[in-house]
Amino acid sequence: MQPFGVPVHINQIEPVHKVAFPTVPWFYTPPFYPDTGELRWQDRLQKMREAQSPYRLVALAPPEWDVVALQVEKPDYVVISDFEEHDVKRIGRADYRAFLAVLRCDYRLVRQFRNDPLSARPCRQPSTRPALHLPRRSGLCSKRFAGYG
Q1: Per the domain annotation, does 69 fall within a domain?
Q2: Which of these, 2, 42, 54, 122, has the minimum number of CB atoms within 10 Å of its CB?
Q3: Phi, psi for residue 131 in degrees, rounded to 5
Q4: Predicted TM-score (pTM) of this structure
Q5: What is the pLDDT of residue 61?
Q6: 34 with 51: CB under 8 angstroms?
């Protein structure tokens, strides 16, 4: 049985690993714990901290895209939804760019999940079924993650 309905490919993460999110998890986040749908971010954050999850869950926010929190926490995995990064990527926000710079150096992209149909979408709006990016900490400063972002 899969915890909280997490897809099989996400379950390949060993339970002892630290899984982090660049923003407070919400509807676009895989259900690593059952209360990601709470409306107030404070409630979602509290529910994540109280959750009986097989993973060590860490929100690297607030503030969002906190590069210092990423470097201090050193999570094994970072789960990023294109839904949450769409606007910060589009406008080139400095905190997002700094966060990605650390990911490119210290992580490698191990999986990317997409629920969209194979055909291209006619518009550039974010999908209601976001793609997920799953970088894993490599500990080596390399360009293996450079194709992302």
Answers
A1: yes
A2: 122
A3: -80, 150
A4: 0.72
A5: 92
A6: yes
